[in-house]
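ok so i was messing around last nite and threw this chain in just to see what happens. nothing serious, just curious
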Amino acid sequence: MTTPVSVGVSIGSENCVLAVSSAAGRQDVVADDMGERATPMYVSFSPEEVLVGAAARNAGVRKPRNTVHAVLAMLSAREAASVRPYKPTCEVEDVLPEGPDGEPDYDAEPEGITLPSVADWGDEDQQDTSRTPADVAIEFFARLRTLVANACGGAPVGSLVVAVPRDTDEAAVMDALHRAEVADRGTTLRVVPADACVAAAANSAPFAPSFTGEPVATTEESTTLVIDWGGNALRVSAVVVRGSSVECVAEESVVGRVGGRQLDRAIADGVAEAFRRKTRCDPRDEARSMRKLHLAVANAKTTLSVSTNTSIEIEAFCNGI
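result:
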């Protein structure tokens, strides 16, 4: 009989990472179908197909209005009963909303996405069919289901733990996971705060078994300071572990000023300024050029996680240069 394996999924505002723990105690981060260890949280719609992950992020350069990112943030918007309507188009719009500083906001978060059904695509006389944030999340989680199946290689999944930021609507995530059928009937599925998972790693002996529902016979208590630098926020939390229970006793967040997106923007702005000085052509005047640059910066940042240097090369970046 094949021994069940445990699967851990870390879902952030920008990326999703999947890891498998075998019965032998070996943990491996699993690459997606594009060969990336971190799958971007992007979903892109077209009449022919739905793209997820890196392919959707790449499609966002050409079809920004058909592409949704920050899937988890949209799903956790408790007040969003429906989503923002617009007409899907393959044309690239060169006008972006302005940020608080008056500059184009390349990281503007959509309130949602509304797409016509495939049968009605392009028919202006037909009524649009809305897609809710949950529908978009289910498309992403359906791909996650495929990654889990491929990673386990036919072995049954005993437990599946999904780690999300503490301010996430865990009930909405759990509902979307169930609707996407990510976990089989015999799998224990849990959605837990990411800082609790970090505390579990730091105090693995007393705490880790509680994720799978096994009894814990210990009364040890420890406090872990967790610093989470995510895509759009810096979160610091103090997590107290008491035997099989965990409690976040203090938390502070800085949102929108310190995060991976702000780092991307700073790098992109520096590259754009260097390009302007060299060519006298400013890519910041063209939204499509900046989308290309932001994509290249994100890829370069991923490369730097496993390498000490990289380069940014963009074909036909600005005015054919």
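not much to say yet. The radius of gyration is 21 Å.
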